[in-house]
Structure formats: structure tokens, C-alpha cells
Specification:
With 188 residues, the protein is an alpha/beta fold. The protein is 51% helix and 16% strand. It is built from nine helices and seven strands, in the order H-E-H-E-H-E-E-E-H-E-H-E-H-H-H-H. It has a five-stranded parallel sheet with strand order 2-1-3-6-7, sandwiched between helices. The chain has a two-stranded antiparallel sheet with strand order 4-5. It starts with a helix and ends in a 5-residue tail after the last helix.
């Protein structure tokens, strides 16, 4: 039975199972790399934007999992570098600071999905192997009304190029109120 599962996994991954994982959380990176190797990927890892870009230029991967916020910059720079070297890469962006504006940017740069941490290996595998046009399952716990409001504020804030005064004006909100909202973590 294990042989059948391996054949199915190989079929889902295609002839090139190369995967680049870029994350500055060392223990998470190693756990995820082991989990993806056990699912049939040939894994390479990087712990910084610079290392991720260098590895994507040396051997552009078919698959990529990239953390959004890295110690030396933005993971979207790695996605962009991968896309310049290989257009058919399926890239997933991981982040602990999810907001819709960043997700939209990630997709425009070529990411196929955007997952919030902590994402488990099954979620990541499913996102990477999802066929074009296939719809993701509806989440069991959809966003709360508070989270939807927070996401909207974040989107407007990003559209205003992170200008608090302009964002407050567009949202018809007091600047200090907006600053307090922006200083808090995203609601569940």
C-alpha cells in the first residue's frame, strides 16, 4: 500500500519534485523540510532573502515555500527572483502576519497560495499540489467580523503606502484610533 501512495505522490509532483523552503525559523524550517521530503520532494532550504535568491538563481525550483518576513528583508523578493528564473514554479507564501493586501501582492508576483502560520505540512502539501482551477476547501473557521474589519483597514493602509494620516482620512477615522488598531495583532 505504501508503494501506491508513493506513486500517487510522484504523479502529483510531476517529473521535477524540487522544492525550496525559505524561512528564518530554523527548527520550523528543518521540520518542514523533513515532512516535505517524506512526501516525495527533493528539498533545498534557505534561512534568508539573500540565500533564497542565490539558491533560486543557481537551481530554480519547481516548488517554493517562502516566509514573508525574514531577518534580512521581504520573502516576496525571493518569489520575484524565482519567477525571473522559472515561470512555472508553484510558490506558497507563509506568514504569521497575514493581511489581504500582502496576499494580493504575493499572488501578483506569482504565488499560488498564501497560508498563515502555523500552517501544517498537509496544508502546505495540498496547496503546492493543487491543480489549476481546483478550489480550496472552505475553512472550518472563517474570519470573524473583527478580523474582516482589521483586514480592510490593513488593505487601505497598504494602498495609502502606509501613511497613517491618509489612511485615517479615507476610513473616516481618527488618526490616533487608527494607530491603536495598527499597533495591535490581528484578531482571530
Amino acid at each position: 500500500m505504501d508503494t501506491h501512495l508513493e506513486k500517487t505522490t510522484d504523479h502529483e509532483l510531476g517529473p521535477d519534485p524540487s522544492l525550496l523552503i525559505v524561512d528564518d525559523d530554523g527548527p520550523f524550517l528543518r521540520r518542514l523540510a523533513r515532512a516535505m521530503e517524506s512526501r516525495g520532494f527533493v528539498v533545498d532550504t534557505a534561512e534568508s532573502v539573500a540565500e533564497g535568491i542565490a539558491k533560486s538563481k543557481a537551481r530554480p525550483p519547481k516548488y517554493a515555500v517562502v516566509d514573508l518576513r525574514l531577518g534580512d528583508g521581504n520573502g516576496l523578493d525571493v518569489i520575484e527572483a524565482i519567477r525571473q528564473n522559472r515561470e512555472d514554479t508553484k510558490a506558497i507564501v507563509l506568514t504569521g502576519y497575514g493581511n489581504i493586501a500582502t496576499a494580493v501582492t504575493a499572488v501578483k508576483l506569482g504565488a499560488v497560495d498564501y497560508l498563515s502560520k502555523p500552517a501544517d505540512a498537509d496544508d502546505i502539501f495540498n496547496a503546492l499540489t493543487q491543480r489549476p482551477g481546483e478550489k480550496a476547501d472552505v475553512p472550518e473557521n472563517p474570519m470573524s467580523a473583527d478580523r474582516v474589519r482589521w483586514e480592510h483597514i490593513q488593505r487601505v493602509y497598504e494602498m495609502c503606502e502606509r501613511n497613517v494620516s491618509e489612511t485615517a482620512r479615507r476610513l473616516n477615522m481618527h488618526r490616533r484610533t487608527l494607530q491603536r488598531i495598527l499597533a495591535k495583532r490581528a484578531p482571530k
